[in-house]
Amino acid sequence: MLKERLAELVSESCDGQITAAEVLEASVPLSYLGVTSLAQMRLIDAVEREYDVEIDLGGDVSFLDSVEGLAAWVSAAR
Predict the structure, then answer these.
(1) Res 57: pLDDT
(2) What is the pTM of this model?
(3) To which H or E segment does residue 64 belong?
C-alpha cells in the first residue's frame, strides 16, 4: 500500500502528467519518466507532510529515483 500511495504522490507532484500506474511500472529512474526538479520538490514536500518525516537534501537523495527506494526510505525513517 505504501508504494501505491507514493506513486499517487509522484503523479500529483507532476500534475498528473505521469500516472501512478506508470510510476509503479517504471524500470528507469523517475526523472526519465519526466519528473522534473520542481515536481521532485513538490514530492518531497508531500512526503514530508504525509509521513511526518524530513528529507535531508544535503545528504544522499538517490532513493528519490524510484518508488521502491522512496518506500524503503520512508519505512526506515518512521
Answers:
(1) 93
(2) 0.93
(3) none
Q: What is the mean pLDDT of each run of 10 residues along the chain (78 residues)?
A: 97 96 95 95 97 94 95 95
Report which of 31, 49, 53, 28 is spatially closest to residue 40, judged by C-alpha positions.
31
How far is 64 from 60, CA to CA, in rounded Å? 9
What is 2-77's CATH number, 1.10.1200.10, 3.30.1060.10, 3.40.50.170, 1.20.140.10?
A: 1.10.1200.10
Instruction: Tell me the three cell numbers of residue 4.
Output: 501505491
Of 40, 43, 42, residue with least CA distance to 5: 43
